[in-house]
Design goal:
Its cofactor is Zn(2+). The protein has 369 residues and is α/β, with parallel strands linked by helices. It has helices spanning 3-17, 54-62, 87-94, 113-120, 131-137, 139-147, 177-188, 197-203, 235-238, 255-263, 281-290, 302-310, 337-343, and strands at residues 29-33, 40-45, 70-73, 98-101, 124-127, 151-158, 163-166, 192-196, 220-224, 245-249, 267-270, 295-298, 316-321, 331-333, 348-356, 359-366. The strands form three sheets. It has a nine-stranded mixed beta sheet with strand order 11-10-9-8-12-6-13-16-15. Strands 2-1-3-4-5 form a five-stranded mixed beta sheet, sandwiched between helices. Strands 7-14 form a two-stranded antiparallel sheet. The longest helix has 15 residues, at 3-17. It is globular. NADP nicotinamide-adenine-dinucleotide phosphate binds at residues 156-157, 164-165, 174, 195-199, 202-203, 224-227, 229, 274, 278-279, 281, 299-304, 307, 332.
């Protein structure tokens, strides 16, 4: 691997650690390297809350030594005056001689202008190194600025014979501890977790991150609930003051149900209904995008999963398959017709297959080639 690739991998790793903490901004990693020796002079990543950006932090760590150095950055440096001054100004002021940037920022306020301004300032700019990895890490930011909604990662667990729940009320354990740990890490890297009211009522989940050291990384929990049936006695409602809960509902929600949930600290918002009377999923995701959310992990049941596939709102999907079988007893099928069709060639490709203890996790991504 070339030195450039090594330093870009470090920048990507730094940025990846902050996923889920920087929205509405992307989590950008930056590394300043002395050109002649390859010595790392400074590193940085977007701070929690989205500011400061990664580049000024890496430049500040490098100090005067940044003059003549190379900056590796996972996303095009910003060129506009937002709540922070443009990163391009900081890079020029620091005297950086060369910038290696993985991905152009599609944000219309930047969109190539960051790279162009640096070139105009006499900096050698190279773009596109590890673009695919950077595009994956920044999928939330890219989807929000290009489509006005967060990137949705759908997760479903199923038995070897394809069921995601038993037929009766008993709770089915499908996956083991290694896969459960992976799910909690995906949660920590999300800005919000999405479920339907079916899952809230059947499982009464907490949807928090329960990994050692990451307890503070529980994201916002979002429930789609057309008629506001979420019980005030549910874990999601009772813990809303510790871990925020947002319920998206429709005009059909009874006012007393809304008052009871809001009294517990649950945020309730009304979005349009679709033709079938459920929540209009495109409008719901646009609402979440307008709130600044960039990365959404769906842990809902098969109804929501299939409706998301039908509405073409899925950027990535992970199917975790456990070793158990329900056999003739049967249950609720994990894959509905729209999701099955999408994964079987409707614009998705397999990007990863992992063994997680006794379980396997296969991840599909929307094919952007
Ligand atoms: N194995 C897994 O990975 C996994 C994950 C989650 C859940 N589960 C299991 O799945 C079962 C629950 O399944 P589910 O499919 O009912 O849960 P769900 O998909 O989480 O919730 C479905 C409900 O969401 C509401 N909703 C509102 N707008 C919708 C829309 N546009 N499209 C679809 N749904 C919309 C509907 O109820 P309203 O009309 O009342 O709003 C709908 O019945 C439970 O047994 C649970 O244990 C399994």
């Amino acid at each position: 691997m070339s030195d450039d690739a090594t330093f870009m991998r470090l920048a990507l790793a730094l940025g990846r650690r902050g996923l889920g903490t920087t929205w509405p901004n992307p989590s950008v990693g930056a590394v300043v390297v002395e050109a002649a020796t390859g010595r790392i002079l400074g590193t940085g990543a977007t701070a929690p809350g989205g500011r400061p950006h990664g580049e000024p932090l890496a430049l500040a760590a490098a100090g005067e030594a940044a003059r003549g150095a190379t900056l590796y950055v996972t996303l095009e440096p910003c060129s506009h005056h937002g709540r922070t001054p443009p990163c391009t100004d900081a890079i020029l002021a620091a005297g950086i001689a060369r910038v290696v940037s993985a991905l152009e920022d599609p944000d219309p306020r930047v969109a190539g202008r960051g790279h162009a301004l640096l070139r105009q300032g006499g900096v050698a700019v190279e773009t596109g190194l590890m673009r695919e990895a950077a595009a994956r890490d920044h999928i939330g930011h890219v989807t929000r600025v290009t489509r006005g909604r967060p990137a949705l990662h759908l997760k479903l667990a199923r038995t070897r014979d394809g069921f995601c729940a038993a037929a009766g009320p008993e709770r089915l354990r499908i996956t083991g501890p290694v896969a459960d740990g992976a799910v909690h890490l995906w949660r920590a890297h999300a800005d919000a977790i999405l479920i339907g009211i079916g899952t809230a009522r059947a499982d009464d989940p907490a949807l928090t991150v329960r990994l050692p050291g990451l307890a503070g990384r529980s994201p916002l929990r979002v429930v789609l609930d057309t008629h506001l049936r979420l019980s005030p006695a549910s874990v999601l409602a009772r813990t809303a003051r510790d871990t925020p809960t947002l319920v998206l509902t429709t005009r059909s929600a009874p006012a007393h149900a809304r008052r009871a949930l809001e009294a517990l600290g649950v945020a309730v918002a009304t979005v349009p209904a679709d033709a079938a009377g459920g929540i209009d999923l495109t409008a719901a995701l646009a609402d979440l995008g307008a709130r600044g959310l960039t990365r959404l992990c769906s842990e809902g049941g098969p109804r929501l999963a299939d409706a998301l596939a039908r509405a073409d709102l899925i950027e990535a999907c992970t199917l975790v398959t456990g070793p158990a079988e329900l056999g003739t007893a049967g249950g609720l099928r994990a894959l509905g017709p729209a999701l099955r069709a999408a994964l079987a060639g409707g614009g998705f490709r397999t990007v990863e297959a992992l063994r997680l203890g006794a379980d396997t996790a296969v991840t599909y991504e929307r094919d952007r080639t």
